[in-house]
Structure formats: structure tokens, C-alpha cells
Amino acid sequence: MDRKAMITEYIKKEIVRNDKATISEDEDLLSSGVLDSLGILQLVAYIQDTFGIEVPDKDVVYENFHSIKSLDDYLKQYAG
Fold first, then answer.
1. Using CB atoms within 10 A as the burial measure, which of 1, 44, 48, 67 is most buried?
2. Is the dihedral of CA 77, 46, 23, 29 positive or negative?
3. What is the pTM of this model?
């Protein structure tokens, strides 16, 4: 499973708590209400635990977390 799929599945199962939810990779997760501040913290912890990537506080910004695609683009710089 690729990183985008893993992140999407985590959001559906642990944050939205609906396995059948549809979340596109370009959907604005913040404006749509999928992610709130607690959800972002959960997602950061998941990324750090699962991918071994330390996400500094300065990187927890809208540009990096507004969609699955933007998050994956951000993570590429650390994980290739």
C-alpha cells in the first residue's frame, strides 16, 4: 500500500471513523471539516510512528496538511 493510501485509510478509520467515507487526494481536509486541530495532532503522531518522520511544529501548517496530496508531497522530502 502506498503512503497516500495508508494516510487515507488512517483518516477514514481513526479520525472520521467511517471506513466507507470517500476522501479524494485533493479534498481540502480542513475546510471540509475532516481534520480539526485534534485530528491534525493524531495525524502527526501517526506519521511519526508509521513512517519514522519527525514533523516539526513549524511544518504543521495549512499548506502541508490541507489535502492528502499536499501531505504526501510534504513527506516526500523526508521519505523519498
1. 67
2. negative
3. 0.91
